[in-house]
Amino acid sequence: MSAPLDKQELLSRLEPFDQHQLLDWWDDLTDEGKVRLAGQIAALDLPLIDSLYRGKLDQPDWAELARRAEPPPAVRLAQRKQASRGELGATPDEARQRGIESLRAGKLGVVLTAGGQGTRLGFGLPKSLYAIGPISSASLLQIHIEKIRALARRYDVAVPLYLMTSPATHDDTVGFLAENQHFGLDPADLVVFCQGTMPAVDVETGKLLLADRDRLFLSPDGHGGLVAALKNSGAFEHMRQRGIEHLFYLQVDNPLVPIGDAELIGYHLSAQSELTSLAIAKQQPHERLGNFMMIDGRLHVVEYSDLPDDVAELRNKSGDLKFWAGSIAVHIFDRLLFERSASQQGSLPFHIARKKVPYLDTKGNKVKPQKPNALKFEKFVFDLLPEAKRPIVVEYAERDCFAPLKNAPGAAKDTEQYVQQLMLAQHRRWLEAAGAHLTPNAKVEISPLFALDAAELPERIEPGQEFNEPVYLR
Ligand code: UTP
Asked: CATH number for the 60-406 domain, one of 3.30.160.60, 1.25.40.10, 3.90.550.10, 1.20.140.10?
């Protein structure tokens, strides 16, 4: 259905919400411009935007909720190291075996979100393309895809990748994949789909902002846009046809994610969980991580900024933080959970953030604001967690799973340098555990196709093998 090109008709849609300024330049637009703007206006959910701006939608009282929260059912790292049967009833070996069976049966797919604009990094291209490999200069996307290929090879199955882009990243990402022959992934195992967008409104007036005379300012609708995008793109159909039941979810900026880790999948299956999250232990109460908390029997991620001090600082008898589990945005979702959520209209709430948004002012000048001038609306994937039945979290050591590339050089953490240091340190640990000798300055990067994890490395190197210069093992 094409959008109406009749100015009066468009005005009759906009006026009840006091948004007629979007048509201030209508009469000067080319036909192409009119088609674009009319299409964007037709796609707006004006009542929703109005409610979001007026704060009519319920915002949870996190302080109150957090005060009645409990820690989530969990497998802790110590218990994994001691090979003991914890509250979930499976030893690490038993879990790994179950995970391996499921992997061999080809029930796992991978969902990778790569639609963000990477504002803090300031790279200019989608973050997926960032050459993060410390020796190889491999991009984030290459590293993730090589892990998926290594996993598929190990279990002799296809592991499809569902890659979410946004209008901000789609063309560059698809072009990059094509130039690089999809980094060896069979195109039949790759589904690239684009998430939706949301407009921004002026903080003071609630007026929708234009990026130009013939277009709204639109940005990706948050990683929580995943649920609708999976549905609208036909990805569920692809998953069903392939017999995919579990989706390993990760975000593109973290090259340390143990994609498809058999033990994690095994705990997920043993607990008959619809949602298993990888967690790291917080080192201090106010760490800048989302907090896993059970509230009224449902798993939530409560943002650090929403967690009251008295709750954040609670400790149990042994002196450990009561709410120890920090989220790094790595989850296993059952396909059915995604499908159930997608069938409920507007199931995930919008979060509202003040941001600097360049816009066209009432005189038609483009303005680059120096301070936050607009409200943006985003959905977050972790809002799906409360919908999950029997959720669990499994603790991993931070150094083995978490090195997100977020910031431009100079920041204290999460920069290129930080991520590369963690990658090299992990590969050094794996090599040393396999009996190799590395001089202090030796930098060794391991391609996932050489060894996907520490366990695979002894098959690939000789005990006592020396490394004394930068090498990329591939
Ligand atoms: P962030 O929220 O950290 O955003 O996304 P970002 O784009 O990486 O960086 P900033 O905040 O603009 O500096 C975490 C993950 O979620 C994905 C990102 O691509 C990243 O993998 N994401 C985020 C989406 O896929 N879509 C979105 O709308 C937002």
From this structure: 3.90.550.10
